Amino acid sequence: xxxxxxxxxxxxxxxxxxxxxxxxxxxxxxxxxxxxxxxxxxxxxxxxxxxxxxxxxxxxxxxxxxxxxxxxxxxxxxxxxxxxxxxxxxxxxxxxxxxxxxxxxxxxxxxxxxxxxxxxxxxxxxxxxxxxxxxxxxxxxxxxxxxxxxxxxxxxxxxxxxxxxxxxxxxxxxxxxxxxxxxxxxxxxxxxxxxxxxxxxxxxxxxxxxxxxxxxxxxxxxxxxxxxxxxxxxxxxxxxxxxxxxxxxxxxxxxxxxxxxxxxxxxxxxxxxxxxxxxxxxxxxxxxxxxxxxxxxxxxxxxxxxxxxxxxxxxxxxxxxxxxxxxxxxxxxxxxxxxxxxxxxxxxxxxxxxxxxxxxxxxxxxxxxxxxxxxxxxxxxxxxxxxxxxxxxxxxxxxxxxxxxxxxxxxxxxxxxxxxxxxxxxxxxxxxxxxxxxxxxxxxxxxxxxxxxxxxxxxxxxxxxxxxxxxxxxxxxxxxxxxxxxxxxxxxxxxxxxxxxxxxxxxxxxxxxxxxxxxxxxxxxxxxxxxxxxxxxxxxxxxxxxxxxxxxxxxxxxxxxxxxxxxxxxxxxxxx
Length: 576
Ligand code: ISL
Fold this sequence. Notes:
This protein is α/β, with parallel strands linked by helices. The protein has 17 helices and 24 strands. α7 runs parallel beside α8 and α11 packs antiparallel against α12.
């Protein structure tokens, strides 16, 4: 019944197929590569695999630009391979969540080709076509229908000379936005989703799903955004397309049309919306079971706590109290109301051990484990991104030629064209580029980390001789086995699923400590720094005298009353 859904106790593992395992030596990961590694994934103990897009695609954004929703891209394999992957997961008691990218398609999708063909095309209205700004000539700078700056730099509008109008693309020009105002578009999406459910998928991760409703005016026009700081000629359009006026309505409709039907085996489906810019109130409304929209969302506030004034390209050192305050706010804000998803990493974020841990040889393992501990024992559904369970690190290449990611390349081009030096721009890109997450999975210490027998599409991180799956699986003290134990705790203990979260020592700059309370009490205390620390946890002497369930440092000093001494990056979990 409601409140008892399987995903409340589940842990999800994200596979980015291009970078996971290459079975045929072409340098790009594929479905047969994943099939060959299912026992590895199962050994971690996860319940679900979320597969980043494998649909047919020109790969302008590594598959987040789809040209056929009903087929597998030949780079990754065939529909038969996908069926085999689903069967292989199900046989091991795991489920498959597909990435659903329906804010936009590829410009090579037949829907868009038809839409673009002429102003009178029956599919014209499936996308956002608008004339140039009044008094302007189409194609000239400033003639765009709105001043919006795109996620991947430049304008969100592309001029189409042939039909004399612009089309909207919040991301790359090869990713035109679908017009969700048109009911035929929505029906086509729901039909496609049901087709995948019938094939055996168990849920959907919905790409930028809170961008599907745009704040269109009755006359069809879209509002300009406030000017961006600096010399940019663009504005911030995000208030006009983020969490738009019809978002709840569309999600509810999708729920009734697809999600309510459940999976092929009769279980409930898992739905998680990727929602950049979502507020706690909106997330509460989207994930409130009574509203029947989505099970959970990926919020982004905690990913922004170390952004500088220039945004994601200007990372600053983390101020721990900011991160704790943010996560605690979401823990409390969704408790008993909606549901949290818990993540440090995905294919868009730098590696957390390099970002908020300490990736030096001395502290890498302990800091990766401790980051896992403080995240996994919160309330919600944890997501592990491939390689996170090994403590994989950033690459931070210094030359733009080493990078492949469209967001990184466009940002570089736009910044250098605007007068910034190569050095300045590269200093921003190194620690944050999405390619940090996309270097090939490190399987063993053989050439190319065992990812491919050919030349990998993106260079392997040179750290692979030390950091790889074979070494981690063989070492009982590895990050891998620590993650496995964390996952086991969630499966075993109701308090991890249901316990009420309370943050301790909110202002402490080194220690992350919290309790979870239900019939039992769980206490997590973690040193999030590379210096030793001693703290008092007033009122916690009882649970500190309880069972030490999990620790990064088995030789650590026992708690003394409510006082705890922790080595650098030491974390402990107590149960009473
Ligand atoms: O990378 C980001 C945060 O650092 C975001 O700007 C990101 O582009 C945004 O969260 C949306 O991401 C999703 O949609 C994109 C795709 O490129 C990403 O890989 C995907 O996760 C467009 O489909």
